[in-house]
From TrEMBL:
It is found in: Cell inner membrane. It comes from the Bacteria. InterPro entries: AAA+_ATPase, ABC_Ni/Peptide_Import, ABC_transporter-like_ATP-bd, Oligopep_ABC_C, P-loop_NTPase. It is a peripheral membrane protein. Keywords: ATP-binding, Cell membrane, Membrane, Nucleotide-binding, Transport. GO terms for cellular component: plasma membrane. PANTHER family: DIPEPTIDE TRANSPORT ATP-BINDING PROTEIN DPPD (PTHR43297:SF2), OLIGOPEPTIDE TRANSPORT ATP-BINDING PROTEIN APPD (PTHR43297). This is ABC transporter ATP-binding protein. Its main location: membrane. GO terms for biological process: peptide transport; transmembrane transport. GO terms for molecular function: ATP binding; ATP hydrolysis activity. Belongs to the ABC transporter superfamily. Pfam families: ABC_tran (PF00005), oligo_HPY (PF08352).
Length: 326
């Protein structure tokens, strides 16, 4: 795969506490990758680190490349061109990302000026086109609205228009629908899919909801305590989940058909950074734990094309495959 973005052994710590413990991830041009996991597992920090958006106290090591160009430690001028240009990011709460005292059209025009050098009537016409593209009704008039005059869903569409202004090759959408009503959530997710098809950009969708990610993405990465514990194409993940944590997330999904049942919750909680076990971080919550789980952190084992899991059960399956093939 010729990756658009490659993360290699990406590690982040704050005040000596590890938040990311070695992320390896490729995003191909045009693909949609879902990043899923419980709150605090490092989904947002992964992309904030790659884009140089973490506070100075964060210690970041490893590598994050955009078509071979290293982003970690890159000059501010390089990062300014990448951020909001080749890689755009939208966040959960559009109200806090938009400037409340600048009309929304002006905010889109500013992004067009920064990333495409557009000004005046050309920028205004392009801003209107972007509003049309993201489904803001009565776009010409809405350009002059203030953020507080629009609903949360409309403001998220404005954020998406700002993100599209730089013609990104990758859009990172960090819980883009969490703050919205359920019906609006579905509309925004559909919009992101449509835009990906229209523009050919890649999409990284961050969510704590495996169902949301499964509907919208080609591939899913399951994160736990600062690591990717399993990644696979969506269909494969549902057919052959290997990591017990993935199984736990799948068990927590409501069934598509059949009677409603109580959602299975995974007992226990994620270990705190200062109390990380020596072996597998999920072991204390794992029903399939064995003594070997406590010895060392399991590495990612390839199981099928695009499918890897970091669990000693996967290690055992990998060895079994090698023995059969020999
Ligand atoms: N600026 C910061 N200073 C200190 N710790 C931080 C900072 N930002 C993130 N962290 C820590 O890094 C870890 C990963 O956080 P991150 O926000 O990436 O999690 P997440 O998986 O995106 O969770 P959520 O779904 O709640 O957004 C958490 O333990 C968090 O407390």
């Amino acid at each position: 795969m010729n990756a658009l973005v490659s993360l290699r052994n990406l590690r982040v710590s704050f005040d000596g506490q590890a938040a990311l413990r070695g992320i390896d991830l490729d995003v191909a041009p045009g693909e949609a990758v879902g990043l899923v996991g419980e709150s605090g597992c490092g989904k947002s920090v992964t992309w904030l680190a790659a884009l140089g958006l973490l506070p100075a106290k964060a210690r970041v090591t490893g590598s994050a490349t955009l078509q071979g160009q290293e982003l970690l430690g890159a000059a501010p001028a390089v990062l300014d061109r990448v951020r909001g240009g080749r890689i755009a990011m939208i966040f959960q709460d559009p109200a806090s990302s938009l400037n409340p005292v600048i009309r929304i059209g002006r905010q889109v025009e500013e992004a067009l000026r920064l990333h495409r050098g557009m000004q005046g009537a050309a920028a205004r016409a392009e801003a209107k086109r972007l509003f049309d593209q993201v489904g803001i009704p009565d776009a010409a008039r809405r350009l002059d609205a203030w953020p507080h005059e629009l609903s949360g869903g409309q403001n998220q569409r404005v954020m998406i228009a700002i993100a599209l202004a730089g013609r990104p090759e990758l859009l990172v959408a960090d819980e883009p629908t969490t703050a919205l009503d359920v019906t609006i959530q579905a509309q925004i997710l559909t919009l992101l899919q449509d835009l990906r098809r229209e523009t050919g950009m890649a999409l990284v969708l961050i969510s704590h909801d495996l169902g949301v990610v499964a509907d919208s993405c080609d591939r899913v990465c399951v994160m736990y305590a600062g690591r990717i514990v399993e990644q696979a194409p969506v269909a494969r993940l549902f057919e052959a989940p290997t990591h017990p944590y993935t199984n736990g997330l799948l068990g927590a999904l409501p069934p598509l058909d059949g009677p409603r049942r109580r959602l299975a919750a995974i007992p226990g909680s994620v270990p705190e950074p200062w109390a990380m076990p020596k072996g597998c971080a999920f072991a204390p919550r794992c029903a399939e734990r064995s003594p070997a789980c406590d010895i060392a952190v399991p590495g990612a084992v390839p199981l099928a094309p695009g499918h890897q899991a970091a669990c000693i059960r996967a290690t055992a399956m990998g060895l079994l495959k090698e023995t059969v093939a020999a």
